[in-house]
Amino acid sequence: MEYTMKKMMMSCGIVVLTGLSTFTWAGKDDHVLVQEAAKHVVTVSQVAKLADETGVTLTGQITKHLQSDHYEFKDQSGTISIEVDDDIWRKAGLKVGDHVRLVGEVDTHRHKPTDIEVIKIEKQMH
């Protein structure tokens, strides 16, 4: 009886440890990115200097729909591609031409330009 209990406890411990280690590989949680983005209010031109997965806040205008959930975003310093999931887009009631404040994650790529994966976006009155 005691042996079975120890075995069961050990297997539970392994499951918990495995679960924790996969969580750390999954990247940053959205609430961590939002906190980080509050400290990184940047312009498009500054994004290029930031590391992959850095949380950022940008203010500007959605200027073009590129494809599926990718849009062009512009501020006074330049343009960048942003990725906005359909559910976030619809919830915010967005359209091309809107002025927005967005919170997102810098997403660097090997063979294409850096873009921003949006986790939160809101229309700005202009």
From TrEMBL:
Keywords, in A-Z order: Signal
Gene3D superfamilies (UniProt xref): Bacterial OB-fold
Domain of life: Bacteria
Keyword check for RNA-binding: no
InterPro entries reported for this sequence: BOBF_sf, CarO-like
UniProt keyword Signal present: yes
Pfam families: BOF
Protein name: Uncharacterized protein
Organism field: Acinetobacter tjernbergiae DSM 14971 = CIP 107465
